[in-house]
Amino acid sequence: MTADPSDVLIAAAGLTALGAAPAATQTPAEPGQFSWLDGNWRIAHRRLKAPGDWDVFEGEATCWSILGGRAHVEELRIPVRDFSGMGLRTLDPEAGVWLDYWMNAKVGKLGGAGVAGRFIGGDGVFDSAAADEQGPMIVRGLWDQITGTSHRWRQGVSRDGGASWDWNWIMEWTRA
After folding, report:
1. What is the pLDDT of residue 112?
2. What range does the domain containing 46 cover?
3. E strand or H helix at 86
4. Do residues 6 and 107 make contact, with C-beta atoms less than 8 angstroms apart?
5. How confident is the model at residue 17 (pLDDT cuts 50, 70, 90)?
6. Number of domains in the chain
7. Nearest 5°: phi and psi at 2?
8. Which terminus of the chain, N or C, has less C-beta within 10 A?
9. Which pLDDT belongs to residue 65?
10. What is the mean pLDDT of the chain?
């Protein structure tokens, strides 16, 4: 599965694999959990075009928390592709999850229902159910390797219920 920047995190809404992790490792969604992402970032992108063939390009982002940490905004810019977009994460305290939305600046509207997720073992895990010509799948957006100066975001697909993942977009973030 390949995607272009406007497809990041856009998939059919649904929460599938989050319940598979042991409850002890799941952190309840709460205000401020994305504050580590606040600031300016340089991003090294790798997007899978075909098996073994990666498209590599640079980007940047500015991120900030709003509403007392109950929402988080990410402005993504990829100058070499004349692309910009916005990630918006909002806290749903009643459901105990974050909802992750995406907007391509050229389209000018949110790309559908938010993808639900939470932190599991220190990683931000956002899963949605989807299907294509090969059948049903889980699409995962994963924030991991989080430190004060770097982290990684990956997008992957599982066709075996989350037992294995085919990663098709990897973003290595470094604080600017």
Report:
1. 84
2. 5-175
3. strand 83-92
4. yes
5. very low
6. 1
7. -115, 160
8. C
9. 98
10. 88
